[in-house]
Queue: 2 jobs
Job 1
Amino acid sequence: MRHELITDAALVSNYLKGDESALSVLIHRHQQKIYSFIYSKVYDRDITEDIFQDTFIKVIRTLKLGKYNEEGKFLPWVMRIAHNLIIDHFRKNSRMPKFDNSGEFSIFSVLSDSSLDAEKTIIKEQIECDLRRLIDELPDDQKDVLMMRMYQDMSFKEISDKTGVSINTALGRMRYALINLRKVIDQKNIILTN
């Protein structure tokens, strides 16, 4: 019962002063919420367990290196670490979760996380806005194919049928759209990461 009275900040401070048990109290206090968050993204107990452990390995390393900036936000900080490790997991396994096709596409719908702070939300909105502007600069035929493929999740066969061009032409337009996007991003020195 006494553990609940000690704040996360005090526990972090005690851990940094050498009290190893303070970390186990922190882990025990937040493990259900963090574990559930990870599981809700990966739907696999083994992977969840691995990411959960990797999250706390990273927490311990960051704390020991003195790189943790205490602002009374221990749990959101740990959740962000877990969130980044989930993204790394999907990237490593080349399978980002599918985004839904209801309404307007958001490149960040796959990365949504209620614990993101206002600053990150603003950054994401800015990136999304920049990306839309870049896509608008593409020639119409390339823009149409890119929008159908990426935002409406249409196959190249479906795109071919809808636009009345061959599958190879649709593929070529998609290829040129991506090449042109990269060129503009490089020329304008735009950074599309947060």
Note: The domain at 2-108 is CATH 1.10.1740.10 (Rna Polymerase Sigma Factor; Chain: A).
Job 2
Amino acid sequence: MRNAAIQHVEAKFLRQDVTPFRPGDSVRVHWKVKEGDKERVQAFEGVVIRLSGRAHRATFAVRKMSFGVGVERIFPLHSPRYEKIEVLSRGDVNRSRLFYLRDLKGKAARVDVQEEPTAQGAAGTAGKKAAKAS
């Protein structure tokens, strides 16, 4: 009984506009920063190295290189403090935790980009196969 009541209360605070992304994706998080009495939006761009938690406790970690220094930041997924999350590119990785990126430097630290099929590309391939069959 208590668990259902807690889930009901937590459901009110879950964001509905969460962009779907996975570890390995390059994202830009537009985070609201409060400085004094003013508030502005600051972008944090990097690779998602971890997703963890469920429901309102879910978090994700983003890693970027800033002036040769690795910077990681953990964001709450359902926080009202960010405006939006932009997915810049889809990563082609086989792990859910990309902590091995911490030890890599330079070009070795890049994540392969997953190529997204386009409608024209798929139709073009089917046309080539039909031409070969004739």
Note: The beta strands are 26-35, 38-52, 59-66, 69-76, 82-89.
